[in-house]
Description:
Structural class of chain A: alpha/beta
Shape of chain A: globular
Order of helices and strands of chain B: EHEHEHHHEEHEEEEEHHH
CATH architecture of chain A: Alpha-Beta Barrel
CATH topology of chain A: TIM Barrel
Radius of gyration of chain A: 20 Å
CATH superfamily of chain B: Metallo-dependent phosphatases
Distance between the termini of chain B: 40 Å
CATH superfamily of chain A: Aldolase class I
Number of strands of chain B: 10
Oligomer: heterodimer
Distance between the termini of chain A: 56 Å
Strand content of chain A: 5-15%
Number of helices of chain B: 9
CATH architecture of chain B: 4-Layer Sandwich
Number of domains of chain A: 1
Helix content of chain B: 25-40%
CATH class of chain B: Alpha Beta
Largest interface: A-B, 55 and 56 residues
Structural class of chain B: alpha/beta
Strand order of the largest sheet of chain A: 7-6-5-4-3-2-8-9-10
Amino acid sequence: MSNTGSDAGQVELSGLDELWFQVAGTLCNLTCTHCFISCSPHNDSFGFLSLESVEGALAESVGRGVREYYFTGGEPFLNPELVPMLELALGYGPVTVLTNATVLKDEWLERLRVAEDRGPYSLEFRVSIDGPDAATNDPIRGAGTFDRAMRGVELLVRHAVLPIITMTRTWPDGDDQRVLAAFREVLARHGCDRPRLKVLPRLLIGAEAQRTCGYGETDRVSARMMQGYDSDQLICSHSRTVTDRGVFVCPILLDEPSARLGATLAEANRSFSLEHGACVTCYQYGAICTNPSGQAFEQMVGRVEDGAGEGGM
Amino acid sequence: MRLAFFGGLYSNYLALEAAISDARRRDVQELYCLGDMGAFGPHPDRVVSMLREAEVFCIQGNYDDSIGNELSDCQCGYTDPRDNLYAQISYDYTLANTNRENRRWLQQLPVSADIERNGVRMHLCHGSPRRTNEFLWESTTSDAFLDRLIEPSGAGLVLGTHTGLHWTRTTPSDRQFVNVGVLGRPANDGETHVWYTLVELAERPAGQGVPGARLEFVPVEYDFRRLSDEMRREGLPEEFAETIETGWWTTCLEVLPSRERRRGQF
């Protein structure tokens, strides 16, 4: 569903800070009822990326000055070449992998620890768990997934990983503090006593549009709304996503044909029209896909002019 | 020629005093401070007086922008409620205890500066060359990204602060970035000293790295117990005093990448 009206806000690619790899396509071992791209064991609308294609994009990314790399899906660890891909990417820059932590293996984590220690860059694990207990999580992610994810967290902790736990807010906004406190408690019981938590808003597309509701026709980011807005808050101003079906503007809008910007990173180096309902959620919350360490935080007022070589004493 | 670069004072006037003395003992000719004069510590006006008295060339950090313009928070952008709580306590105290003249002084500071000494072009910024409050962590900043950030400035050496952790890297294109560290609190390493950066410039450019620039991270010992006592007397949170006394960060941890976070205790 898109609004191709000419008053949609436009976002230029100011620079390629993050490069995303849709490494498992839309294939996942889980079928979460809120998934914005409806991933499942049977959704092969996007397939696995090959090691060769990741290698090519990594090499191309150097000339674009990419800061960091994100690997997502679906469940990235379903791709049998994921571990070599992560090892390779760590030679280029910082890497984050987004996982549900239900299929992790000791031998993979051992290899990845060695790869991270070999160079200067961080390997971050972001683990999706959608509630601090099975009663909250399992209706969304599937029966037994809370316990399985907690076993995954224990495994990560044993390998000295400090995972970032991401949770999609399926509770009222006012309950955040209660939920976060419960998360800290349960994670500590599973050995994760330095929890890093990130709450994500729901995106009302894909499976979530069926579970609750979709965006309305008026839920759009207009050109007027972009006046005075810090577009660095939107990842489309500094990211692109490599898939097996071309380069997309972001990892969220894969089901939107207009979000495919080209076959290559070079072709995808162009502006994007914010004509989709989900763009409103990014506009409202800002930087929902990026790690806290790399987030572009909004600055509030006009800057003092540069005073090279004068003043300041 | 020797230059000293300070960052992140966080109102730690005792460490600033010790660092200025140390730099003078080392025959440093020019002193620079890359911003974030306030936060965490007591009596924020004291560092401003010292900076002006010692004729330290200063640029503006996000904290200085906030205090100077009397904004509602420090613009560090935390989302973790605990980080936000402590950041706000620190900010409200600093704003309330910075006098009007010093707020005006913070407001007018330049956000960056370009200098050239002994043929070495240097770009001075707070966070990154493109954004005052951008965190450049060692483990989440690729070589390619550093080159892209540095290239427009035309500098061979870029100096920043903001994260609280000192580090340096020379890119494959032979450009160098230095996070000069902070004087305001220890480097989350279990030690009580703080850090500044000494840059020594040869009279004639040498052949490798940034021509003629030799860097040294300098640890600074100071009376940290006096600082933590004063923090408590001012009613600042015990967590801030604990960091000063133990060398482990207790707050504002959310933005640390995993690699930097693993080195700490919390």
